[in-house]
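Revision sheet: C-alpha cells.
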Amino acid sequence: MASPNHWPEGSREAAEALHRQLVIGDRDWHALKGQPQRRGAEQLAAALVQLLDEANGPAIRGSTPQRQQAIALVEHALAWLQGSLKDPGCPSHGR
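Predicted:
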C-alpha cells in the first residue's frame, strides 16, 4: 500500500517504461506522422512521467514545475487528438 505522501512503488518506473515504448524517434517519425493518436499517447505518457516525479508527490499542494510541465504535455496531447496539431514537417527536408 502506498503512503498518502508518495506514489505507489514502481509507478515512476512503469510510466518511464511506457513512455520509452511510445516515444516516436527520428527514424519512426515519417512512418507514424499521420497517426495523431500515436503522438497524443506519447505526450500523455510523458505527462505521467512528470506527474509521478518524487518532487511532485500526491500530497503536495499548489503548482510545481513538474505539474506545470505535465499540464502542458496533456494540453499538447489533447491538441493532437483533437486534430488542431498536425505534422510540422521535417526540418531536414527544408520544410
